[in-house]
């Protein structure tokens, strides 16, 4: 379950609700200590309990769709294939795929698993427009 206190405005999340099949929404506001969030879905803004939203897992496809390029692929100990991905937005950002859905950003060696965590890192690096306009 996603902790609403971990979210920031503009974060992308999955929505699980009877009125909406699982779709991507964008956090517009956070209420009651992170227990409720207002989420933009297409043209609507809808209030959700945080138990009704979930994270979006990072993937190699996500990075490639967001202007990263594959630098190299190599096998590590013949167990996991490790890829290095590079993005030149305003700074050079290298992301290594450690194993399925676990990524390490070479800027600070930070491991992350979810899109909102990647967005937070991009914002910390001053890449606000990039973080808020990712292709999901």
Task: Provide an overview of this structure.
- The protein is an alpha+beta fold and 136 residues long.
- The chain has helices at 60-65, 115-124, 128-132, and strands at residues 12-17, 20-31, 36-41, 44-49, 53-54, 69-76, 80-88, 92-99, 102-105, 110-112.
- The chain is 15% helix and 47% strand.
- Strands 4-3-2-1-5 form a 5-stranded antiparallel sheet, with no helix packed on it. Strands 6-7-8-9-10 form a 5-stranded antiparallel sheet.
- A hairpin with a 4-residue loop joins β2 and β3.
Task: Please give the structural blueprint.
Layout: E1 12-17, E2 20-31, E3 36-41, E4 44-49, E5 53-54, H1 60-65, E6 69-76, E7 80-88, E8 92-99, E9 102-105, E10 110-112, H2 115-124, H3 128-132
Antiparallel strand pairs: 1-2, 1-5, 2-3, 3-4, 6-7, 7-8, 8-9, 9-10
Task: Write a short abstract of this structure.
The chain is of the alpha+beta class. It has helices at 60-65, 115-124, 128-132; strands at 12-17, 20-31, 36-41, 44-49, 53-54, 69-76, 80-88, 92-99, 102-105, 110-112.
Question: Given the helix and strand composition, which structural class is it?
Answer: alpha+beta
| Topology order in helix (H) and strand (E) letters | EEEEEHEEEEEHH
The count of DSSP E runs of length 2 or more, i.e. the number of strands, is: 10
Strand order of the largest sheet: 4-3-2-1-5
Give the overall average pLDDT: 77
The termini sit apart by 20 Å
Q: What about the largest sheet?
A: 5 strands, antiparallel
Number of helices: 3
């Amino acid at each position: 379950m996603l902790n609403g206190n971990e979210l920031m405005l503009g974060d992308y999340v999955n929505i699980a609700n009877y009125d909406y099949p699982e779709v991507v929404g964008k956090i517009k506001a956070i209420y009651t200590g992170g227990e409720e969030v207002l989420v933009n879905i297409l043209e609507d803004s809808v209030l959700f309990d945080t138990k009704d939203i979930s994270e979006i897992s990072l993937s190699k496809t996500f990075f490639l769709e967001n202007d990263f390029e594959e630098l190299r692929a190599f096998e590590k100990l013949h167990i996991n294939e490790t890829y290095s991905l590079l993005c030149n937005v305003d700074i050079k950002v290298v992301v290594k795929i450690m194993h399925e859905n676990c990524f390490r950003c070479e800027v600070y060696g930070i491991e992350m698993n979810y899109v909102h965590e990647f967005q937070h890192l991009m914002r910390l690096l001053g890449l606000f427009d990039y973080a808020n306009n990712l292709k999901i």
